[in-house]
């Protein structure tokens, strides 16, 4: 098991990312008091052709967008469609968050994390990942009721989740939405 993106490689990528956004010194204070960094640039190699995306049934929803089952070319994928925002400041903040998420997902790889396939910015802000078969942990736990989860199975689930979180934390990423219903 490996966690790509840690150690010296991480330090170099963080340096490159800071340099690509102009570092801390070029942040701009907005009229509303918020501070924004210059626009992050998403590498063109990370972008997918929106003409090859087909969005199917909704499989999840969160504060920042909706997740759909879909297709990218001949692959079945998960497609996260992010909210665009309604005000100029909101749009800028959401586009910056989108760029950070795309850059982060493209750099971190681990067997217990979904694989990043690509993203597109127009006409929608979309992140495309592998679609894992099966169901969320929450649905699984409900499906086995009234039985309890076997201790060894529970420990394996916990270890898999911990290893994925360890990889994220080694890359200075905090998930902030870990729950049994997360797909």
TrEMBL record:
Region of interest (Disordered), ranges: 1-32
Annotated binding of ATP, by residue: 80
Superkingdom to which the source organism belongs: Eukaryota
A GO molecular-function descriptor: protein serine/threonine kinase activity
Basic and acidic residues bias: start-end ranges: 12-27
Alphabetical list of SUPFAM superfamilies matching this protein: Protein kinase-like (PK-like)
Coiled coil (residue ranges): none
Record keywords: ATP-binding, Kinase, Nucleotide-binding, Transferase
UniProt keyword annotation of Repeat present: no
Reaction catalyzed: L-threonyl-[protein] + ATP = O-phospho-L-threonyl-[protein] + ADP + H(+); L-seryl-[protein] + ATP = O-phospho-L-seryl-[protein] + ADP + H(+)
Domain Protein kinase: 53-183
PANTHER family: PROTEIN KINASE LIKE PROTEIN, SERINE/THREONINE-PROTEIN KINASE TNNI3K-RELATED
Record's protein name: Protein kinase domain-containing protein
Origin species: Acer yangbiense
């Amino acid at each position: 098991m490996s966690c790509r993106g840690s150690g010296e490689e991480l330090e170099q990528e963080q340096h490159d990312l800071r340099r690509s956004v102009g570092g801390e010194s070029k942040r701009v204070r907005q009229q509303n008091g918020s501070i924004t960094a210059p626009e992050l640039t998403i590498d063109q190699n990370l972008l997918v052709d929106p003409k090859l995306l087909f969005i199917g049934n909704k499989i999840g929803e969160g504060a920042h967008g909706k997740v759909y089952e879909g297709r990218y070319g001949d692959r079945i994928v998960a497609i996260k469609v992010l909210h665009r925002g309604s005000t100029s400041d909101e749009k800028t903040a959401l586009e910056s968050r989108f760029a950070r998420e795309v850059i982060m997902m493209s750099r971190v790889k681990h067997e217990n994390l979904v694989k990043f396939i690509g993203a597109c910015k127009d006409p929608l802000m979309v992140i495309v990942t592998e679609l894992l078969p099966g169901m969320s942990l929450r649905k699984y736990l409900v499906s086995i009721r009234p039985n309890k989860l076997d201790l060894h199975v529970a420990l394996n689930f916990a270890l898999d989740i911990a290893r994925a979180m360890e990889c994220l934390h080694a890359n200075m990423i905090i998930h902030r939405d870990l729950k049994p219903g997360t797909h």
